[in-house]
Amino acid sequence: MKKFIILLIITLFSLSLLSESPQSNDPIKENLNDQSTYAGSALASHEDMIKYGTPLQAKAMVIDAIIYMQEVGTEKAFIDFKNKAGKFHFKDLYIFVFDMDGNVLSHGAEEALIGKNLIDLKDSAGKYFVKAFLKLMNESNNGWIEYYWRNYETQKVEMKLTYLTKFNDNIFIGCGAYQPRH
Q: Around Cβ 72, how many Cβ atoms within 10 Å?
């Protein structure tokens, strides 16, 4: 009987955690239930789970990048973010850094973008996603943005869910996960 009561309490506690809705940027919800619709989820193929990162892994990478930049400074961090064999490349995830004018300061997948201003860049759906980045960073210290971007692994344009966090008043860091391939 005690085992049954303990199991019941654990089940009720777990259900209460699932029913909570954390604060997030509409229309994107940042909770584990939404992971089933993104790369690396339980609904993705086994191959996808092995090869592709998830939004939660992308967020963790951004948090690690912030801490790293605070420890070593921006110059060293920007160099290390480009190192494809380094800790800021995991599966298909990589770090990118922008300033609040839309200039790329560091990019883990495409060095040719570094130094370019992308404020007027549109995705394949016509969304000015860099402007969306800047709007979010002006309104909040962190959050999620969805847009279409070329997946450097598959060379296809895919929906990407990107987590952004401010480093300071002029710099923010991002990392995004592509939607599943099924």
A: 12
Q: Alpha-carbon distance 93 to 100, whole Å?
A: 22
* Residue that the structure tokens 């962190």 belong to: 142
Phi, psi dihedrals of residue 99, rounded to the nearest 5°? -100, 175
| pLDDT single digits (tens) 65-95 | 999 999 999 999 999 999 999 999 999 999 9
Do 62 and 87 meet the contact criterion of CB atoms below 8 Å apart? Answer: no
Let me know: does 176 contact 97? Beta carbons within 8 Å: no
> Which residues are within 8 A (CB) of 87 and not within 5 positions of it... i.e. 6 or more apart?
64, 80
This prediction has a pTM of 0.74
CB 176 within 8 A of CB 160: yes
Spatial separation of the C-alpha atoms in residues 96 and 174, rounded to whole Å: 5
